[in-house]
Amino acid sequence: MSRPARADLPFAGIDGCRGGWVIAQWDGGDHLQLFRRTRVEELFDAPDAPAIACVDMPIGLPETSEIGGREAERAVRPLLGGRQSSVFSVPARAAVMAGVGPGDERERFAAACAAALAHSSPPRKVSIQCFNLFPKIAELDELLLRRLELRDRLIECHPEVSFRIMNGAPLDVAKKVKNRPHGPGLDLRIGLLARAGVPVDLLHAKTATALRAGLDDLVDACACAVTAKRVLEGKALRFPDPPARDAFGLPVAISA
Predict the structure, then answer these.
(1) Using CA atoms, how far apart are residues 147 and 151, in angstroms rounded to an integer?
(2) Do 56 and 220 form a contact (C-beta atoms < 8 A)?
(3) Could you tell me which of 209, 143, 156, 216 has the C-alpha nearest to residue 180?
(4) What is the largest CA-CA distance in the chain?
(5) How far is residue 164's CA from residue 161's CA, in Å, rounded to a whole number?
(6) Which end of the chain is more exposed for a tag (fewer CB within 10 A), N or C?
(7) C-alpha pair distances (Å), 233 with each of 54, 73, 215, 226
(8) Exposure of 169 by Cβ count < 10 A (0-12 exposed, 13-18 middle, 19+ buried)?
(9) Residue among 55, 231, 43, 34 at smallest CA distance from 133
(10) By the 8 A CB rule, do 229 and 50 touch?
């Protein structure tokens, strides 16, 4: 979906989808644009690049994966009540990098599991669901290691944590059930976005189909945009605060 260049849409939320990323770029008021990009870097190279973008993907990888994941994951899970399983534990950098690149998928998965076993305490493999996210995790990692100026502009968040902050309490209904869209959960979250001031008239199945994404991807991208606004306004919470740092100096924290 094409869009005109705008210089007054300072907040962006980014959510991964099949073949790329869904982006919700917002002015904090009545103007919201939904589009997709193949790579996140394209967003920052555009003339209307946002001041702050929050992304639903891990930033900062551990050298050794521990039970419960990074401190960031362990810090936010207790906030989510029955939705804690939506926060997965991030594996070690070696496992992520072993699982990306050319070659047979089965061989890359085996290599990722072997690296995970060697770099986790206690030793454990990675799930196929987590493995499928490795290309996007690696994309962000490479971008932030190469473009240091983006480290304060591209920030990790988690939509369920963002919605929990908007709601003031854990959400008691999922947006997907058995990997299928769940209407009551989506409606609840769209209502929270509306209360936060986000224009929600585009959040429907027709827009999702046009963007080759799921409606849940659009909803999550908008939640990330709300967090981006909170970051720029100095109102966001960080878990932990101050952030930890990985071996390359990348911040490790979930903002909400």
Answers:
(1) 8
(2) yes
(3) 216
(4) 51
(5) 5
(6) N
(7) 13, 24, 28, 11
(8) exposed
(9) 55
(10) no
CA 216, CA 182: separation in Å to the nearest integer? 9
Residue type at position 253: A
- Identify the burial level of 102 via C-beta atoms within 10 angstroms of its C-beta, where 0-12 means exposed, 13-18 middle and 19 or more buried: exposed
What is the identity of the amino acid at 75?
Answer: A
Which neighbouring-strand residues pair with 13?
24, 54
Measure the CA–CA gap between 110 and 118, rounded to whole angstroms: 13
Nearest alpha-carbon partner for 54 in 6, 20, 22: 22
Q: What is the CA radius of gyration of the chain?
A: 17
The tens digit of pLDDT for each residue in 152-198 reads: 999 999 999 999 999 999 998 989 888 888 999 999 999 999 999 99
Task: Supply the pTM of this predicted model.
Answer: 0.94
Chain position carrying tokens 């870097």: 41
**DSSP helix/strand/coil, 229:** helix
CB contact at 8 A, 95 and 115: yes
